[in-house]
Amino acid sequence: AIFITGFVTPVFADFYENTKFKGDLRLRYQTQEETDKETRSRERIRFRFGFETEITEQLKVVAGLASGGDDPRSTNETMDDNFSTKGIALDLAYFEWKPSDPVKLTLGKFGKPSNYLTLAKDLLFDGDINFEGQHIWLGGEVAPDVEIYAQGGIFWLDEYSSTEDDPFMFPIQAGISGKADAIKYKLAVAYYSFTNLEGNSFYEGGGTNTVDDDEGLVYDYNSYGLTGVIEYGFAGGDGKDYMFKVGGEYIKNDDVSEDGYLILAAIGSKKIKDPGTWQVAVNYRELEKDAWLDIFPDSDAFSGKTDIKGYEFIVEYAVAKNVILGLDYYDIQRISSDKDQQVLQLDCVIKF
Predict the structure, then answer these.
(1) Rounded to 5 degrees, what angle do the CA atoms 5, 8, 12 make?
(2) What is the β-pairing status of strands 258-269 and 241-253?
(3) Phi/psi at 36 (5° precision)
(4) Which of 25, 99, 108, 341 is most buried, judging by how many CB atoms fall within 10 Å of its CB?
(5) Residues with Cβ < 8 Å from 333, sequence gap 6 or more?
């Protein structure tokens, strides 16, 4: 009794008070048509649950579980195999430390790419990827509502027992963000440095990068990037907050004269949460064969390949608080051939 009341209860009470739990469930119906292949239809499910807890004012720990297997670009599970059970795996496990106002350090397996790099969308990184390694952010206000920042990291790509030539990614990005009246903006430049990619191979790849059959990848994919996003906020006739956003992303492989870009536009509610809130968006992307490493891009845009071009259309609508219906349609073609792929996804997402 002394142990329970004197130790367990206070410790648990502190943990509960300083901890936030969150999760989501997504049900998806998906059809996929591709040149020279049969139409594929399937139902998929995704479940994620996690928490973040504040240890001190400067330190917090975040952890989360998600459905799916070992695919870094997807936490979906297909409804198949005669009602088989589905896998749950470690999706997040990291700590974030803020030793001072302009500095933030993150170590472990941390969240989606757009939380740690300024990105317009998923031209470079699928939204389900969670980086692994170390990330540092430095920044602060230089004028009212104007912030400059720099961020970078050491991200592990793989680890080999037979050699010391493990592949890494070292992203470095500097940017400016701010707002002026109803306008918010972000502009950032980046350099993505890789080590030990040339001669390597990854099973998660899209199979489109140039390879030597005996040696693996031909290039190291050191690349320059540019990102810009502008958002205009306005009040609708119903008194609710709305926005119109345009943006873009550009990438160029320093090792070969190939590049890629994405442009986007979106309009709708600032947040899709309350009943009746909505957004409509469209983007167009082109990504040449060796413009970028093919283990990273959006896995729904021609199965995550490079050497692609095409459109994506998105519609989202909240039918109840934290219950969102979505439609996502991809019409993507291969640049070097006449092959194309169309993917239609109908989603119901419940957040809690």
Answers:
(1) 120
(2) antiparallel
(3) 70, 15
(4) 341
(5) 302, 308, 309, 310, 339, 340, 341
Comparing C-alpha atoms, which of 278, 267, 265 is closest to residue 234? 267
Output Rg (C-alpha) for the chain, integer angstroms.
Answer: 22
Sign of CA dihedral 196, 200, 203, 209: positive
Q: Is the pTM of this model over 0.90?
A: yes
pLDDT in tens, 36-57: 999 999 999 999 999 999 999 9
Give residue-wise pLDDT tens across range 190-231: 999 999 998 888 877 789 999 987 788 999 999 999 999 999
What is the model's pLDDT at position 10? 63
Give Cβ neighbours of residue 174 (< 8 Å, ≥ 6 apart): 148, 149, 150, 151, 188, 189, 190
Query: Whose structure tokens read 């809690």?
Result: 352
Burial class from Cβ neighbours inside 10 Å (0-12, 13-18, 19+) for residue 205 reads middle
Q: Chain-centre distance of CA 191, in angstroms?
A: 18
Residues 97, 81 contacting (CB under 8 angstroms): no
Buried b (16+ CB within 10 A) or exposed e, 316-351: bbbeeeeebebebebebbbeeeeebbbbbbebebeb
3 CA to centre of own chain:
44
Structure-block tokens of residue 330 = 């991809």
242: which strand partners? 234, 269
Q: How confident is the model at residue 203, as a pLDDT? A: 76
Write the single-letter amino acid at 149.
Y
82-127 pLDDT per residue, tens: 999 999 999 999 999 999 989 999 999 998 999 999 999 999 999 9
Chain centroid offset of residue 266 CA: 18
Chain centroid to CA 17: 29
CA distances from residue 321 to 26, 238, 241, 274 in whole angstroms, order as listed = 15, 18, 16, 5
